[in-house]
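Quick log. Single chain, no ligands specified.
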Amino acid sequence: MIKKVKSLIKSFQFAINGLIIILKTQRNAKIIFGLGLLAIILGIYLRIPNSEFLIIILTVGLVFIAEIFNTLVEETQNIFSKKAHPQVKMIKDMAAGAVLIAAIISLAVGYFIFVKRFFCF
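-> predicted structure:
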């Protein structure tokens, strides 16, 4: 039982280390994390309803996870191919496109949740 708990704790340590690495090394991850944190703090400050707050959290998580996977794809491709290869470029571009879609979705969610609180329509 103790061995399983230690193994679980070690797994969490690896995961936290991964998050620290991406936040230290990836500019876009820092930006996404900062803006996501700002959206969450703003949601708390404005006392938005729980349902909207959950949507904000899920959206922030979606964008951050997309950025993590984009970085994973890029770094993995860099291990196997340092030179520009058309298929490597295509794969990297598709991963970046996934982040872009997630970011656009998050902007739409932010618009519908926050704009009505700042401007009277």
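The chain is about 90% helix and 0% strand.
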